[in-house]
């Protein structure tokens, strides 16, 4: 490029720098004159601008009010709070020393359960049979907590547990739908395991002593609550019966006659209520 000054041009002062255009067109092409806008077109453009801003503002305001339903739950949501409850909530809150079951027994009789022991938190393999573990795999396992209770007469024992999952709302709803559609809660090969405790009334409470059980998939929290009951004397049960069937008025099996379906369902229900109430209280705390 020739940088020699044109004849008659004023020399540039020493050290001056003039950036050159990237293309010759930028220095040689003259801008075309812009015609004055007609009043009607200007007014129409102004109206369109106002309407457009109104729509955008309305959309933004709407998103503030209703939120994004497809977004992940926030830090203060029931899912976020519930998923961490296994280590942020005291064990005496998750598993109270005493559970009161008003009207929870056969014929709407009252029940009271006393906690025997609490297991250390663990992975799910410790408290779930392999098939049940695979069934819950779509929602993952954040942590498992368990405790064993006995009734007031010390004739029955019940292990209750909470699986804190890694799943989101859609995953938990899908799991709940599958459990309902395929009646998985009533399959004996999906029974939870017991938590026997040496030196207690639950010392002989093993797999062969499982008599009745229940599994609840929660959808407003990332959790699965289960309970399994049996006789405190350690007798084996040849044909375990799901709690729903054992609680039927015409049920005549040994678990049904002993009220073990009511034991499993009653303990699971009280622990589930406590968990729901605790998470609700935590999410509603003022910031």
How is the topology of this model organized?
Blueprint: H1 25-28, H2 39-66, H3 78-83, H4 85-88, H5 91-94, E1 98-101, E2 111-118, H6 130-135, E3 143-151, E4 156-164, H7 169-181, E5 212-217, E6 223-231, E7 241-242, H8 243-246, H9 254-257, H10 260-283
Parallel strand pairs: 5-7
Antiparallel strand pairs: 1-2, 2-3, 3-4, 4-6, 5-6
Structure description:
- With 287 residues, the chain is α+β, with helices and mostly antiparallel strands.
- It has one domain (78-283).
- It has 10 helices and 7 strands.
- The chain has helices at 25-28, 39-66, 78-83, 85-88, 91-94, 130-135, 169-181, 243-246, 254-257, 260-283, and strands at 98-101, 111-118, 143-151, 156-164, 212-217, 223-231, 241-242.
- A 7-stranded mixed beta sheet has the order 1-2-3-4-6-5-7.
- The two termini are 67 Å apart.
- Residues 1-37 and 42-73 have low confidence and may be disordered.
| Low-confidence parts | 1-37, 42-73
Q: Domains counted in the coordinates: how many? A: 1
- What's the average pLDDT? 81
Largest sheet: number of strands, sense, barrel closure: 7 strands, mixed
Main β-sheet, spatial strand arrangement: 1-2-3-4-6-5-7
Number of strands: 7
Helix proportion: 25-40%
Helix-strand pattern, N to C? Answer: HHHHHEEHEEHEEEHHH
Total of helices: 10
Any idea what the radius of gyration is?
34 Å
- So what's the overall shape? globular
């Amino acid at each position: 490029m020739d940088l020699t000054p044109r004849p008659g041009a004023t020399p540039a002062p020493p050290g001056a720098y003039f950036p050159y255009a990237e293309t010759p067109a930028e220095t040689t092409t003259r801008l075309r004159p812009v015609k004055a806008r007609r009043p009607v077109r200007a007014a129409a453009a102004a109206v369109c601008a106002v309407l457009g801003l109104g729509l955008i503002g309305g959309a933004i305001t709407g998103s503030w009010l209703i939120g994004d339903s497809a977004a992940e739950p926030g830090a203060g949501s029931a899912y976020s709070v519930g998923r961490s409850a296994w280590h942020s909530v005291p064990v005496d809150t998750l598993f109270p020393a005493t559970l009161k079951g008003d009207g929870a027994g056969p014929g709407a009789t009252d029940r009271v359960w006393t906690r025997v022991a609490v297991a250390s938190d663990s992975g799910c393999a410790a408290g779930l049979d392999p098939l049940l573990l695979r069934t819950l795999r779509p929602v993952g396992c954040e942590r498992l907590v368990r405790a064993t209770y006995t009734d007031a007469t010390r004739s029955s024992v019940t292990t209750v547990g909470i699986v804190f999952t890694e799943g989101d709302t859609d995953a938990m709803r899908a799991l709940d739908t599958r459990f309902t559609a395929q009646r998985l809660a009533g399959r004996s090969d999906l029974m939870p395991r017991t938590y026997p405790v040496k030196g207690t009334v639950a010392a002989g409470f093993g797999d062969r002593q499982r008599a009745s059980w229940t599994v609840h998939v929660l959808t407003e929290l990332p959790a699965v609550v289960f309970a399994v009951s049996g006789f405190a004397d350690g007798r084996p049960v040849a044909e375990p019966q799901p709690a729903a069937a054992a609680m039927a008025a015409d049920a005549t099996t040994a678990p049904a006659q002993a009220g073990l379906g009511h034991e499993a369902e009653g303990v699971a229900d009280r622990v589930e209520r406590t968990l729901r109430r605790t998470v609700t209280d935590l999410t509603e705390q003022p910031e």
